[in-house]
Amino acid sequence: MANGVDCEVAIVGAGPYGLSAAAHLHGLGIEAKVFGEPMQFWATGMPEGMLLRSPREASTIADPQDALTLEAYEAASGTKPVKRVAWGTFVSYGKWFQKQMGSALDRRIVADVQRNGSGFKLTLSDGAVVTSRRVVVAAGIGPFRKNPEVFANLSARHASHCYEGRKLGEMGKRVAVIGAGQSALESAVLLREGGAETEVIARIPTLRWIGMHKRLHQMGPISKVLYSKHDVGPIGISRLVAYPNVMYHVPMGTKDRIRKRAVRSAGAPWLIPRLDGVKISTGRSVASAEETGNEVRLVLDDGTERRVDHVLMGTGYRVDIAQYGFLSRDLVREVRQLDGYPDLSAGFCTSVPGLHFIGASAARNFGPLLYFVTGTEWASRELASWFRRHRN
Fold this sequence. Notes:
Helix content: 25-40%
Shape: globular
Number of helices: 12
Distance between the termini: 14 Å
Structural class: alpha/beta
Number of domains: 2
CATH superfamily of the largest domain: FAD/NAD(P)-binding domain
């Protein structure tokens, strides 16, 4: 480029948010290069056999012409539309999206990002260096896995997180699944269906289920007032979180309560009949965990014991941008933060000029819509709009 950098915008991460952002920036004629393997976290970080919790209507990766929809992929690939989208189908859809939009994709991994004058220097996994005026971090939640301290001394043989993509069939015949969210519950179901003796151990007193008030979703125009198409959060909250620009101006304490309520641990109701045969222990937590020979001894807070071959943590994630290993320590220190989240302004701008974060890391400022694929529509349009106004 004439301004002495290799690309105008470097996008770190080739998942739904990175691909969508690139499509929208390319639509403005902005040279944006995406770094990373397309859909890598989705392809390698999820247990095989999972279904998307989000409904079909909220599972499309946004492009500026609204042409690269899930339905368009199904038609092009001959994939039969189903009510609940399979994990593998969504991965294939994301890769198809990338090919269709013709974005400049570099499959190499970004190893380091540093300030470079008024721009940035990116060192890639093979040692090559790329310079860019701006960097958009769309690297997803992979590094943010939340592993309870009580399991810290267990080896990888005996403990793993749902987001590690471990093969469920390799966990043994007795598995304790920790957590009460979709990942934990669906993992427990898949383990049981694979022949394992499975127990879910959850702190909450009873399991929670999403969308149990079907009648409220079947009231025509009234339902549209109560719920947004994104289907994030319960009645009322669903409508509010559909407008991230409004959420941005909500006081932080209230915003945090709304965010936590919208994404609290819960499962999709279609899992309920499949949980038959899975032992459920609610209102309980693990007080201690130790390896004894080829098994793990768990002691719960009520004093009861469990002996299992593996502990699978479905304990979600906690955003902390310091866990992004590609961000230099100096750069992380420069970013003003809110408990690990970057503190963002319009255009997803950080306190470091030219550095932007989208996806889950933007949810503290703009609300829980940004945790979900359906948030790519608003996020990418907002990002593109800001770039259009501030490009120089």
